[in-house]
Specification:
Layout (H helix, E strand, L loop, with lengths): L1 E5 L12 E5 L8 E3 L3 H8 L5 H19 L12 E7 L3 H6 L1 H12 L2 E7 L18 E4 L4 H12 L4 E6 L5 H10 L4 E4 L17 H12 L3 H4 L4 E4 L4 H5 L18 H13 L4 E4 L7 H7 L3 H7 L21 H13 L24 H16 L1 H5 L11 H21 L5
Parallel strand pairs: 1-2, 1-4, 2-3, 4-5, 6-7, 6-9, 7-8, 9-10
Helix pairs in contact: 2-7, 4-10, 11-13, 13-16, 14-16
């Protein structure tokens, strides 16, 4: 499917029909819109964003709009799509030189086939008559999830002063604000607000790129950045979910999310470096499980206060803003509470008792997949189960990742043993 993405009225000559995507504006009937309120919010805060970071934000918004609008069910294999995006930016020469690198990063993230063509005519960052350069020393993505909560707690405990950036998601906005206030952090909440005239693709494997783009934009507004220093951009995610090894042979590729995978983040870092964007993506928990993150959190009092209210579920909105209790992220969460042991997990799970032998509980696909992974590692050996999951030039400390993945699978095995699922 082809998309033409830019300000209202932006057009390119194309032989095939294309879906218009209006960035930072209101779409007409039959068009897609994205980021309509983002530009206004950033202008309102007086943050001075670098032009290249703003171009990346425009690109990320276009990617999310395309991912949102192109249904996987209509593809030849029911999953892999072919997407061609023509995007208006300020510096088309640079971005066309980076198109192949960006396509590779997105293909790794979503397993779709992406093509990018960049054109002049894109919006630049809002002009700020009274530019504000925040004094914070870094940026931390604060999602409302437990990992980003622990990450910001630890940063503050270590004497850092991060600027919290949130992607506003219905059901999480208040807790994002609560987390930031409890840590006395400045926070900005942004949202891509994509709207499509047709049905919406539910998988949306590329949506995380805009969260990172929000963080990148804010990082370039900091006083430290404008003084010429390199700014850390913290994406705090436990290593087990970041690698997300396929639990079974049927859960390959983008069926498991790769939002914080070191290869995806490493490919984007190379693009940022080529753009001269002096921001460094960091995940301090790449070699830790979620359980180890909880046990090692540097302010246990704050973690006990907020852990249960944090969000982990991959289907949180679908279940009325409740944790389902049975998806892989929920199982990792529940296993982590067991590993932590400091507070009883009082999260109100929709499917709480996994020992119930029905398709909704113990025989649900994700529960069975975890059980099969535990059994396969025990029977055939961990490395046989792990397969090629660590075969990436961006994964340097393979022994460290292997240790972490063994521990993560062991935490899940303990959860399943508690419910009698591996007997």
């Amino acid at each position: 499917m082809k998309f033409v993405c830019g300000p209202a009225g932006f057009q390119v000559q194309a032989a095939d029909p294309a879906m218009p995507v209006v960035i930072y504006g209101q779409a007409e009937k039959g068009q897609v819109s994205v980021g309509g309120y983002t530009r206004h919010l950033i202008k309102k805060t007086h943050l001075e964003i670098s032009p290249q970071a703003w171009d990346f934000l425009s690109i990320a918004l276009s990617i999310v709009a395309a991912d949102f609008s192109d249904l996987r069910a209509k593809s030849a294999d029911g999953w892999t799509r072919t997407l061609e995006l023509h995007i208006a930016v300020q510096d088309p020469v640079f971005w066309n030189a980076q198109a192949r690198a960006l396509e590779a990063a997105l293909r790794f993230l979503t397993t779709d086939i992406w093509t990018f063509v960049f054109h002049s005519g894109g919006y630049g960052p809002p002009a700020q008559l009274q530019a504000f350069h925040p004094r914070e020393d870094s940026v931390a993505l604060l999602s409302g999830g437990m990992d980003s909560l622990i990450g910001t707690i630890d940063l503050v405990s270590q004497g850092r002063n991060p600027y919290a950036v949130s992607q506003i998601v219905r059901g999480d906005g208040q807790k994002q604000d609560d987390f930031a206030q409890s840590l006395e952090l400045s926070r900005i909440g942004l949202n891509h607000v994509a709207r499509s005239p047709g049905l919406q693709e539910p998988s949306q494997r590329a949506r995380s790129i805009v969260f990172l783009a929000f963080g990148l934009a804010v990082a370039t507004s900091l006083d430290r950045y404008h003084q010429g220093d390199r700014v850390p951009l913290y994406i705090c995610e436990n290593g087990f979910i970041a690698i997300n090894p396929p639990l079974t042979v049927t859960r390959l590729g983008s069926l498991s999310t790769r939002t914080a995978h070191p290869e995806y983040l490493g490919r984007l870092q190379q693009i940022f470096d080529a753009a001269g964007i002096n921001v460094q993506i960091q995940n301090p928990y790449a070699l830790k499980t979620k359980g180890e993150m909880m046990a090692g959190c540097l302010n246990q009092h704050l973690l006990k206060q907020h852990a249960v209210t944090s969000t982990s579920c991959g289907r949180f909105q679908r279940f009325g803003y409740k944790h389902c209790g049975r998806c892989v992220p929920c199982q990792v969460r529940r296993a982590s509470f067991m590993r932590w042991g400091e507070v009883r997990d009082s999260t109100p799970y929709v499917y709480d008792n996994l020992s119930i032998d029905t398709p909704q509980y113990g025989r649900f696909e994700d529960v069975r997949s975890v059980g099969m992974a535990v059994a396969s590692a025990a029977q055939d050996g961990f490395d046989q189960w792990l397969g090629h999951s660590l075969f990436s030039p961006f994964i340097i400390d393979k022994n460290g990742y292997r240790r972490m993945l063994i521990q993560g699978l062991d935490e899940l095995a303990t959860l399943h043993s508690f419910y009698g699922l591996n007997e």
